[in-house]
Design goal:
Elements lengths: L8 E4 L2 H6 L4 H15 L3 E4 L1 E3 L2 E3 L4 H9 L4 E3 L4 H6 L4 E3 L1 H10 L4 E3 L20 H6 L5 E4 L8 H10 L3 E5 L18 E3 L2 H13 L6 E4 L10 H12 L12 H13 L1 H26 L8
Parallel strand pairs: 1-2, 1-7, 5-6, 7-8, 8-11, 9-10, 9-11
Antiparallel strand pairs: 3-4
Helix pairs in contact: 2-3, 2-11, 8-11, 9-10
Bound molecules: pseudouridine-5'-monophosphate and manganese (II) ion.
The site of pseudouridine-5'-monophosphate has 19 residues, from helix 1, helix 6, helix 10 and helix 11.
Length: 299
């Protein structure tokens, strides 16, 4: 590494803490995910809006607030200026986290599963497509995740990623992982077996000055993954319940994650936490590798 190399940094989100995992699992995760990043030689940067101030390096007490306070707003791009102007707390989604991280010069993010196109609700199309996808199409970072969430319409999500020019790299896999389901029926764009190969694609994207993110999709090992059919069954039952009709769009993802956890219990929680830690480890390795490349990583 030359002396002007930037410090390897990995951005982490806060929506998974405030809305994705229950207390106290969120607190344990927040601590362990930062340790995982450090153990692999990178600096964790937990991103969130704290009383209207954007933080791209939340302190332990700020992280604690995201885990414990109720009523913290889930912040994507559309409501980011609102929570800042109103000096509110805002837990950032993938969309808001990558935008803020990129503005701070951070090029790698780790999360669990990205948002995508939702399934029909009460038998009707909802046109609910996560702003994660549009932001991934205009923010040149690398998001290390376990693919799109298994609760989504995976076929439509895969198509939209292709249309938006988001490169899906499979980490040692040809099949696109689907969050706590280790594999799906959909293919990745390219399989990489080493960090060096991934870094080569990231560097080429930057040399070409392409605006899109690269998604590095890491599968859970088969023994930790949940059966896809079982998750699909829970999701379709939840989406046909009357209460599903009353959800605001931003409530759908937490509602479905809760439904899967309620039905599958510990197995779902353990799988979710495992994949988050696994992704953080790979993101840190990638950040270290990228920081050591000449002319890469610095803005
Ligand atoms: N990964 C997880 N749990 C989560 C999320 C990611 O393991 O809850 C969050 C991310 O913040 C992602 C959001 O951006 O879910 C997607 O929400 P929506 O579909 O409403 O855009
Ligand atoms: Mn949505």
């Amino acid at each position: 590494m030359n002396s002007s190399s930037p410090t390897p940094a990995v951005a982490l989100e806060t929506t998974v803490l405030s809305h994705g995992l229950p207390f106290p699992a969120n607190q344990d995760l927040a601590t362990s995910i930062e340790s995982v990043v450090r153990e692999h030689g990178a600096q964790p940067h937990t991103v969130g809006v704290v009383d209207g101030r954007v933080s791209t390096a939340c302190t332990p007490s700020e992280i604690q607030r995201f885990c414990c306070e109720s009523g913290i707003e889930k912040v994507s791009i559309r409501n980011l200026p609102v929570v800042v102007a109103r000096k509110q707390m805002g837990a950032t989604t993938v969309a808001a986290t990558i935008r803020l991280a990129r503005q701070a010069g951070i090029r790698v993010m780790a999360t669990g599963g990205i948002g995508g196109v939702h399934q029909d609700r009460l038998g009707k199309p909802t046109f609910d497509e996560s702003a994660d996808l549009t932001e991934l199409s205009r923010c040149p970072v690398t998001v290390v995740c376990a693919g799109p969430k298994a609760i989504l319409h995976l076929e439509a999500t895969r198509e939209r990623m292709e249309t938006l020019g988001i490169t899906v790299v499979g980490w040692q896999t040809d099949s696109m992982p689907a969050f706590y389901c280790g594999r799906s029926n959909f293919a990745v764009d390219v399989r990489c077996d080493t960090i060096d190969e991934v870094a080569g694609i990231v560097a080429a994207r930057d040399a070409l000055d392409l605006p899109q993110a690269i998604v590095l999709a890491v599968p859970l090992p088969d023994e930790a993954a949940l059966p896809f059919e079982r998750v699909s069954e829970v999701v379709s039952n939840a989406l046909s319940m009357d209460t599903a009709g009353d959800l605001a769009p931003h409530e759908v993802t937490p509602f479905l994650l809760d439904a899967v956890r309620n039905e599958l219990g510990d197995q779902a929680l353990v799988a979710n936490v495992e994949l988050l830690k696994q992704n953080a480890a790979i993101a840190a390795q990638l950040a270290v590798h990228l920081a050591a490349l000449p002319d890469h990583g610095a803005d």
